């Protein structure tokens, strides 16, 4: 019996444990931190051995194969020891894909991947396909492979999940865009991060597809200098394309397999240029999967969007409060500020991942009247924008951030939570940060 050891007792770890047991492995799960009670109950119920609060080396280093949760860096001691012993360390996606009967649509990128993943799933489901949703969101891929029998899986894939693949190949891959993010995990080398994203296409064949943003410099450069066997389907909002998706006279046109699909941009429920690109990518998948045009049109018109991503919370005293907690990097915040049509009080800050704030300068000058810093260490933000805005306030909790913003915002203006940073200094994760923001707004 092969021994499968799992590092990390969160969603992907527990899902992999369930699938591993079903596939006849001897399973052991080890978490350096505390495992949440709901996951402990699942492990106990399924009679899976586990430990938390530290790794017992002799129980980990005797594995035949190890699944490492995406949050654990390669620099962790236990991972280094596994590599030294030559024990394969893979991601949940790699492990689960071996047992998945259905085809996968894999979606990666620095920004827009959650929206694109949810929208793609929505289009395929509306089109009557038997389709699951997983990866970085929702129920883990491995858990679904163990318990559900989907014909297709739409997976949101982070660069960390792609780092741990060996043979995994999605039938359709999407790269929404690439901008510097998580550079702390890639020795602060942008090229390493770009290469990690492109691992999504490394095992694809000529029968597979790669959908990508043709306006993105990092993507274009990689494709010029590297080869993929997949059929290329670009999308663009700046140029007309022979094949793929593009903009023409306020219409989105998609040309795939000699067949054309056209929709007025005003009929798409998601707002903003970046969302137009997300819609192009998702609709390209729907076209490849031969979903009816009327269904695609209808589904693009009634899609509701993603929680914590430019989510309009409430209007109080004619001030619009917007929750963009999911913006954990500068590029995501760029989109948020770009989409603001009024003067804005901007709540920003958290754990900086090597951010360069200079690209936000023109937008901050034009649209931001005051900045509320919400983080343990705000020095970089203060240095960047101290001379650009008139008012700058530091707070260390969400209630104060929202109350301060209310005092600063006037009628017809907006309060935007778009942190451009990770949330781990003051919150559990970006969802917790977003929920606290919404609660604080409702309590005003």
Automatic annotation (TrEMBL):
<keyword id="KW-0961">Cell wall biogenesis/degradation</keyword>
<dbReference type="InterPro" id="IPR036615">
    <property type="entry name" value="Mur_ligase_C_dom_sf"/>
</dbReference>
<dbReference type="GO" id="GO:0008764">
    <property type="term" value="F:UDP-N-acetylmuramoylalanine-D-glutamate ligase activity"/>
</dbReference>
<dbReference type="InterPro" id="IPR036565">
    <property type="entry name" value="Mur-like_cat_sf"/>
</dbReference>
<dbReference type="GO" id="GO:0008360">
    <property type="term" value="P:regulation of cell shape"/>
</dbReference>
<comment type="function">
    <text>Cell wall formation. Catalyzes the addition of glutamate to the nucleotide precursor UDP-N-acetylmuramoyl-L-alanine (UMA).</text>
</comment>
<dbReference type="InterPro" id="IPR004101">
    <property type="entry name" value="Mur_ligase_C"/>
</dbReference>
<dbReference type="InterPro" id="IPR005762">
    <property type="entry name" value="MurD"/>
</dbReference>
<keyword id="KW-0963">Cytoplasm</keyword>
<dbReference type="GO" id="GO:0071555">
    <property type="term" value="P:cell wall organization"/>
</dbReference>
<comment type="pathway">
    <text>Cell wall biogenesis; peptidoglycan biosynthesis.</text>
</comment>
<keyword id="KW-0132">Cell division</keyword>
<keyword id="KW-0573">Peptidoglycan synthesis</keyword>
<feature type="binding site">
    <location>
        <begin position="109"/>
        <end position="115"/>
    </location>
    <ligand>
        <name>ATP</name>
    </ligand>
</feature>
<dbReference type="Pfam" id="PF02875">
    <property type="entry name" value="Mur_ligase_C"/>
</dbReference>
<keyword id="KW-0547">Nucleotide-binding</keyword>
<feature type="domain" description="Mur ligase C-terminal">
    <location>
        <begin position="308"/>
        <end position="421"/>
    </location>
</feature>
<dbReference type="GO" id="GO:0009252">
    <property type="term" value="P:peptidoglycan biosynthetic process"/>
</dbReference>
<keyword id="KW-0133">Cell shape</keyword>
<dbReference type="GO" id="GO:0005524">
    <property type="term" value="F:ATP binding"/>
</dbReference>
<feature type="domain" description="Mur ligase central">
    <location>
        <begin position="107"/>
        <end position="286"/>
    </location>
</feature>
<dbReference type="Pfam" id="PF21377">
    <property type="entry name" value="MurD_N"/>
</dbReference>
<dbReference type="Pfam" id="PF08245">
    <property type="entry name" value="Mur_ligase_M"/>
</dbReference>
<dbReference type="GO" id="GO:0051301">
    <property type="term" value="P:cell division"/>
</dbReference>
<comment type="similarity">
    <text>Belongs to the MurCDEF family.</text>
</comment>
<protein>
    <recommendedName>
        <fullName>UDP-N-acetylmuramoylalanine--D-glutamate ligase</fullName>
        <ecNumber>6.3.2.9</ecNumber>
    </recommendedName>
</protein>
<keyword id="KW-0436">Ligase</keyword>
<keyword id="KW-0067">ATP-binding</keyword>
<dbReference type="InterPro" id="IPR013221">
    <property type="entry name" value="Mur_ligase_cen"/>
</dbReference>
<keyword id="KW-0131">Cell cycle</keyword>
<dbReference type="GO" id="GO:0005737">
    <property type="term" value="C:cytoplasm"/>
</dbReference>
